[in-house]
Amino acid sequence: MEQTEGEEERECPPDEQGRVCNWGFGIEIKKMVFLEVELPWNVLLPPDQLNTQGLLLHKAIILRLLQDIASRKAAKEHGYYIAVTSLNKIGEGKIRDLTGDVLFPVTFKCLTQKPCKGEILVGKVDKILMHGVFLKSGPYDNIFLSDKKMGDYSYMSGENPMFVNDDQSKLEKDVMVRFKVLGFRWIEFDRGFQMLATLAGDFLGPL
C-alpha cells in the first residue's frame, strides 16, 4: 500500500487526547481510540421547519446535523463520525432567496474514530480470496489481511474457501478475528480508510 504522509506512521495518541477502550487481555497492547472534536458546520433547514422555536428548533437542527454527518461518513483529518455529543452554538440564520431555506452556522462536538498504526481491533471476515481476506470492524469496512501477514495459515479452496493453520485454526467467512493495524490510507472517492492488517503478535487470530 502506498504510504500517505502523516498517516502510516501515526501512533495511537495518549489517553488524555481522547476516550479510549482497552482491549485488556492481561497483556500490554494498543488501545482503540475515540476522539471528541469540535467542528463548525452549516445546517440548512427547509421552510416548513422554521415555525418552531426554542427546544423544537434546537431539535430540528440536531436531527438535520445527524443526517448530514451520516451522509458525509468520515473525514481524513478526523476519521469516522460516530456520534454528536453536544450542540454548542447556533448562529443567526440566513434566508436563501430562491428556496426560502434557512442556513444556520453551528458548532458542535462529535465523537470520532480514526485508525492508528499498531492498535488492536476485532473484525469479522467478510470475503476470502486466494491471497488474503477482507475484514470489517465497526465503521471500517475495507480491511485487507494478506496471506503474507497470517503466519502459518494456508489457503484451502472449495465451496467454502478458508485459511487453515497446523492447529486447525480457521479463517473463514463470518469468523471474528483479533488483528493489529499495519497501515492505512485515506480514499477520497469512497470517503473512508483502506487498512492493512497483520496477525503478527501475541494473542492475535481467530476468536
TrEMBL record:
<dbReference type="InterPro" id="IPR005576">
    <property type="entry name" value="Rpb7-like_N"/>
</dbReference>
<dbReference type="Pfam" id="PF03876">
    <property type="entry name" value="SHS2_Rpb7-N"/>
</dbReference>
<dbReference type="GO" id="GO:0003697">
    <property type="term" value="F:single-stranded DNA binding"/>
</dbReference>
<dbReference type="GO" id="GO:0003727">
    <property type="term" value="F:single-stranded RNA binding"/>
</dbReference>
<keyword id="KW-0539">Nucleus</keyword>
<dbReference type="GO" id="GO:0055029">
    <property type="term" value="C:nuclear DNA-directed RNA polymerase complex"/>
</dbReference>
<keyword id="KW-0804">Transcription</keyword>
<dbReference type="InterPro" id="IPR012340">
    <property type="entry name" value="NA-bd_OB-fold"/>
</dbReference>
<feature type="domain" description="RNA polymerase Rpb7-like N-terminal">
    <location>
        <begin position="41"/>
        <end position="100"/>
    </location>
</feature>
<comment type="similarity">
    <text>Belongs to the eukaryotic RPB7/RPC8 RNA polymerase subunit family.</text>
</comment>
<comment type="function">
    <text>DNA-dependent RNA polymerase which catalyzes the transcription of DNA into RNA using the four ribonucleoside triphosphates as substrates.</text>
</comment>
<dbReference type="InterPro" id="IPR045113">
    <property type="entry name" value="Rpb7-like"/>
</dbReference>
<dbReference type="GO" id="GO:0006352">
    <property type="term" value="P:DNA-templated transcription initiation"/>
</dbReference>
<protein>
    <recommendedName>
        <fullName>DNA-directed RNA polymerase subunit</fullName>
    </recommendedName>
</protein>
<dbReference type="InterPro" id="IPR036898">
    <property type="entry name" value="RNA_pol_Rpb7-like_N_sf"/>
</dbReference>
<keyword id="KW-0240">DNA-directed RNA polymerase</keyword>
